[in-house]
Design a protein that fits this description.
about 525 residues, alpha/beta, Rossmann fold, four-stranded antiparallel β-sheet, about 15% strand, binds adenosine-5'-triphosphate, binds magnesium ion
Length: about 525
Amino acid sequence: MTMMGGIWSLGGSLQIATIVFLWKILEIYFPGHLRSSIISYSMKLASLVSPYIYIRFPEFIGDSEEYMGVKRSDAYAAIETYLSGKSSREAKYLKAVDVKDSSQPVQLSMDENEGVTDEFEGVKLSWAVNKEYTRTQQSFSFYPQMDEKRYYQLTFHKSHRDFVNGTYINHVIQKGKAITVSNRQRKLYTNNPSQSWERYRARKWSHATFEHPATFDTLAMESKKKLEIVNDLEKFSKGKDYYKKIGKAWKRGYLLYGPPGTGKSSMIAAMANHLEYDIYDLELTTVMNNTELRKLLIETTGKSIIVIEDIDCSLDLTGQRKNEKKKAKDEEVKDPISKMTKGEEDSNSKVTLSGLLNFIDGLWSAIGGERIIVFTTNYVEKLDAALIRRGRMDKHIELSYCGFEAFKVLAKNYLDVDSHPLFATIGHLLEETNITPADVAENLMPKSLNEDAEACLKKLIEAIKTAKEEATKKAEEEARLKAEKEEKEKLEATQEDVKIDKSLAKDVKENGVEVVKDDKTLANEVKENGVTA
Ligand SMILES: Nc1ncnc2c1ncn2[C@@H]1O[C@H](COP(=O)(O)OP(=O)(O)OP(=O)(O)O)[C@@H](O)[C@H]1O
Ligand SMILES: [Mg+2]
């Protein structure tokens, strides 16, 4: 189909008709892989006499022999977007690339075997989209599977070689990227299990349109803290030159920690909405090893937030668990047979702490533009210090129970009230009670059409009182258990002392000599009598 690319520059309806006819014959009578060989040989033949130059932009780049290592080409995507307008006006065979919401037009691109012409600074160029077939690298089969590889082909007269290399291609890529940014719909990605990566076109990430409505305005937290985070994000997103100057990869790590329901996930959504970034929600438990993790990283794009939720649950990454693992390993060394029986489990070994650290700040982490990495956890104290040190997780943000200021944000959002006589009671109760913003929000939400703001606020007051009573009961119960435990320990210690005393007395009686008292007995005597015996 390379020949088709030349059609648009050659002109002449007879030539076009002949070539289209030949192409149809090729398509009907020759299978895909044979067709691409015929095309490739005819192209070589034609190039001997043709004054045209052809540049190919494949859809996937990387090691073409190893499908697992390929990445969708940014240039291909930019060209697709750049040509979208022209394609929808000129091409006859089109396909819908991205169907957006009903308020926006469908983005169209040329279908295979189609071509359009472009003119830039007086130079005419032609574009075509083609595909070729290659054999997949799968196990031996009598019916080998063929993979399609799409590519854009640019054709131009050889006199414009320098202009195209120096100016035109740059213009196309820049323009394509700018269009993408202006009408892009943000995406929420999640990683596919690696078993489905085998096929060439199978992606490592699946995506859906990101539509979470949380913003920093709807987020309930102290305004000072909120402003600090917003400023931090903005400084980062505009910091390209700064990061270059200080010699650091353009990325920033955030650790969000706090009890369940305090807004960690909501904050990630608010960050993405504020910066207009995509989100890559990385499910670490389906990643088999460090190599897979790196491959996933390579496939992420710039202007994105990579999220690992509940990092403490995802993997054996906590310091504590690592020690347990080390202990288990030491035991294995002592007992090689047990190691062999555990062999199967080991081969399934998952991402390690060092693999994750590499993911965050290894050499590979610097590719592909600005990126934010966010970890969330309910138990910050469980995390390994190496994982959350500054430079990796640059900013630690605690999301905590609902304070009065956070309540006011929720009241404004949920009930549209800025002030109310019941606010004072609520403020007072919140000072004494730990209740999550999720619980407050749930109580503020009207449950029927007749429920007004006052009814909701009263409902909240009752909920906080109940939470307070429960917390008091819980604290009392804990105090009782603690006292019981202390009492038991004291009793056990006394019984131990009595035992020692009795054995001493027995020694004296039997042997007629006094045995030197041990330190504990002496200390007890000093405590009780104020003098040593
Ligand atoms: N700070 C907050 N501001 C606004 N809404 C909140 C806040 N915290 C919680 N919510 C509400 O509670 C719900 C749960 O919050 P979210 O999922 O963000 O909590 P989380 O901290 O991620 O919890 P988990 O640790 O269980 O994942 C959200 O849908 C949101 O409506
Ligand atoms: Mg969450």
